[in-house]
From TrEMBL:
Domain Ancillary SecYEG translocon subunit/Cell division coordinator CpoB TPR, chain residue ranges per copy: 16-215
Pfam families (UniProt xref): TPR_21
Superkingdom of source: Bacteria
UniProt-recorded name of the protein: Ancillary SecYEG translocon subunit
TM ranges: 26-43
Length: 220
């Protein structure tokens, strides 16, 4: 019996020693695991809140600019404030990129062509989103063409090949070539624009008239 009691005491002592040496680390490990789970959940909630706030800010911006063809002096400070907030808080998100495009559009409306050009050029240089870069290039090329710089417009569009919005890019190429007196290149670009427009179901108004104007007349 004494041997059995001694054996049980030895087991208890062994458990105590094990707990002293290992139990605390297990407890710490459990606590750290709990912190990790809590941290991940907090991060997910934080991300969701940020996304919701970013979406709300952008919706406010869209509402302001869509309600007014031209932004009046009372609305402009709020629009500028929203754009600045979106660019600062939402970083390189889609919302920030779209807000920058709106900023460029407003600069054009104000007649600040240099500012619009700089905004679009900066968006092209720093952007890693291929679609946003394409939109910015198309808008910059249209602006350059409107300023009487068709060669610059062609240079801006030179990196764009087949892809989203190719119809619009080709239409501007056509206008640039026509402005340079390059009718054959213009006709080729217009036809390419028409083909892309039909494939993407994005009609480009006035395109057929430009093609008809440049197409050689058929002999009877």
């Amino acid at each position: 019996m004494a041997d059995e009691l001694r054996s049980e005491e030895d087991q208890v002592d062994a458990i105590k020693r094990w707990w002293k040496s290992s139990g605390s680390s297990i407890l710490v490990g459990a606590v750290l695991a709990g912190i990790a789970v809590f941290g991940w959940k907090y991060w997910q909630d934080h991300q969701e809140r940020q996304a919701a706030e970013a979406s709300s800010r952008y919706q406010q911006l869209i509402q302001l600019v869509s309600q007014n063809q031209t932004i009046d002096d009372q609305t402009r400070p709020k629009v500028n404030e929203l754009i600045d907030t979106i660019e600062q808080k939402d970083g390189d998100t889609l919302y920030a990129n779209l807000a920058t495009l709106i900023q460029a559009r407003l600069a054009v409306q104000d007649g600040s062509m240099d500012s619009a050009r700089n905004i679009l050029s900066g968006l092209i240089e720093r952007n890693q989103d291929a679609y946003i870069e394409r939109v910015a290039r198309i808008n910059l090329a249209r602006l350059q063409l409107g300023e009487g710089a068709p060669k610059d417009a062609l240079s801006t569009l030179s990196s764009l090949s087949d892809g989203p919005l190719s119809g619009y890019a080709e239409a501007i190429r056509g206008d640039a070539h026509q402005a340079l007196g390059q009718d054959q290149q213009a006709l080729k670009a217009y036809k390419a624009a028409q083909q892309h427009a039909q494939q993407s179901d994005l009609p480009i108004f006035g395109l057929q008239l430009k093609i008809d104007d440049l197409a050689p007349e058929e002999t009877p």
